[in-house]
């Protein structure tokens, strides 16, 4: 970046909110992926929508690319600044702006942490249901930009289903106030949904209005041990028929071993190749129906063992076995596949994918887990210590291309909830047709004609 451009940026924000120290550039220039080295030229820390707008107009004038940055918990390289861009980090835009008790909505700045939204909703007797392990550091703007899902999608939907209003700054420096919290709005294109999942390529999210829900009524959590992968969807169908499931998550014995090694407490004495954590509200006879479903599944040989939490603390201990997986794998530098198919296609897809993974990774440890109740699998390949990281990534990329062909045959997606970013870009054609991608390019040119917003992400 030219010195006069940097001076102008500091003139907008002040010296303290434009960072150029190497440690700051490394911290803000990457997300949870470690496959691309960060190389931003500066980090800008705006505090208002007006300042974001000013930064975009500055970037247009000085021909500088921008990378919007939230909590940087992404797993696809969507927030990586690798080519001298300026990172626009929204950490200081972290306030609750409004609460409407009639609409049951919360309007927040984009830099507020997901967990802070949970807490703000709870303080008002309500519930924000988008939930995942990184909620303490992920931010709402990033959740919107990747259409984050998590463990309660089965009942409450994705982030897209909770956003009733959105304020964004486009690549032309315009501020758009989209939908404004309306439940019904039949006035043409709903541009709000274009920005949800766009990974900051159309505009920078600065505010969001979120629909809250009633808090769960006496949630019950069960941990189930299963004899094989074929039993998972049959157990899912049995429990879904018995109770209104909030979540249905699975993981393998290898995933459990990594979590237990980091201090989690074992909840079952029985060893099994697969486990499920499911949650439901114990309303009326729901708990009795769930236990009856358990007995039927056990009698049919679909379950080996199980336990039900008897308190909030026990529920949390059971959930920790699932939510601690990503953190427990992080030291192994996993290569992550985040894929989805229709729930009805899951048994056939999983069988074919397992055969492919076993054949192509004979010497690698592979850890499976995911939100199988909504058709989403996380396949984590762990790097052998003796293998150089570039060689590991190259080999995983080769196998991912083969997995993409399986995904395409089953009508699925190469990215269920982590976005495309840099890392999934080579495989986009397995999910999106050439015609779709060209239309997306055209939409991008409309909102970002100067090509300054998160260049190189999604597609070139």
UniProtKB/TrEMBL annotation:
- According to the entry, every stretch annotated as the FAD-binding PCMH-type domain falls at 36-215
Annotated keywords: FAD, Flavoprotein, Oxidoreductase
Q: Specify the domain of life of the species encoding this protein.
A: Bacteria
Named cofactor requirement(s):
FAD
**Which family does the similarity line name?**
Belongs to the FAD-binding oxidoreductase/transferase type 4 family.
The name this protein goes by in its record? FAD-binding oxidoreductase
Q: Which organism is it from?
A: Coralloluteibacterium thermophilum
């Amino acid at each position: 970046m030219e010195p006069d451009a940097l001076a102008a940026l500091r003139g907008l924000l002040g010296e303290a909110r434009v960072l150029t120290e190497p440690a700051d550039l490394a911290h803000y220039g990457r997300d949870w992926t470690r496959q691309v080295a960060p190389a931003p030229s500066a980090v800008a820390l705006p505090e208002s929508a007006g300042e974001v707008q000013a930064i975009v107009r500055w970037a247009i004038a000085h021909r500088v690319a921008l990378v919007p940055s939230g909590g940087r918990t992404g797993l696809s390289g969507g927030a990586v600044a690798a080519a001298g861009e300026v990172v626009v980090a929204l950490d200081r835009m972290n306030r609750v702006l409004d609460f409407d008790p009639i609409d049951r909505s919360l309007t927040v700045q984009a830099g507020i942490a997901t967990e802070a939204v949970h807490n703000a909703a709870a303080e008002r007797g309500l519930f924000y249901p988008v939930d995942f392990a990184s909620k303490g550091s992920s931010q709402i703007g990033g959740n919107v930009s990747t259409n984050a899902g998590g463990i309660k999608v089965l009942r409450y939907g994705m982030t897209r289903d909770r956003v009733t209003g959105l304020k964004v700054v486009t690549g032309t420096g315009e501020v758009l106030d989209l939908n404004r919290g309306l439940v019904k709005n039949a006035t043409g294109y709903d541009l709000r949904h274009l920005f949800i999942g766009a990974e900051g390529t159309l505009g920078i999210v600065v505010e969001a209005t979120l629909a809250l829900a009633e808090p769960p009524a006496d949630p019950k959590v069960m941990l189930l041990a299963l004899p094989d992968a074929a039993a998972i969807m049959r157990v899912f169908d049995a429990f879904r028929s018995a109770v209104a499931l909030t979540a249905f998550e699975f993981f393998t014995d290898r995933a459990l071993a990594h979590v237990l090694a980091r201090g989690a407490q074992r909840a079952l004495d029985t060893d099994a190749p697969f486990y499920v954590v499911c949650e439901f509200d114990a309303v009326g006879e729901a708990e009795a129906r769930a236990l009856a479903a358990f007995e039927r599944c056990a009698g049919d040989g679909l379950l080996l063992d199980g336990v039900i939490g008897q308190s909030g603390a026990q529920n949390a201990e059971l959930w920790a076995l699932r939510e601690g997986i990503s953190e427990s794998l992080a030291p192994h530098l996993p290569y992550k596949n985040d894929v989805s198919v229709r729930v009805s296609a899951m048994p056939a897809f999983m069988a074919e994918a397992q055969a492919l993974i076993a054949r192509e990774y004979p010497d690698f440890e592979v850890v499976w887990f995911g939100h199988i109740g909504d058709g989403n699998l996380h396949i984590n390949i762990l790097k052998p210590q003796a293998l150089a990281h570039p060689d590991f990534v190259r080999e995983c990329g080769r196998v991912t291309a083969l997995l993409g062909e399986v995904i395409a045959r089953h009508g699925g997606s190469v990215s269920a909830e982590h976005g495309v970013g840099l890392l999934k870009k080579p495989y986009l054609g397995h999910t999106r047709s050439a015609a779709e991608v060209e239309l997306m390019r055209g939409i991008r040119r409309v909102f970002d004609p100067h090509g300054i917003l998160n260049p190189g992400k999604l597609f070139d």
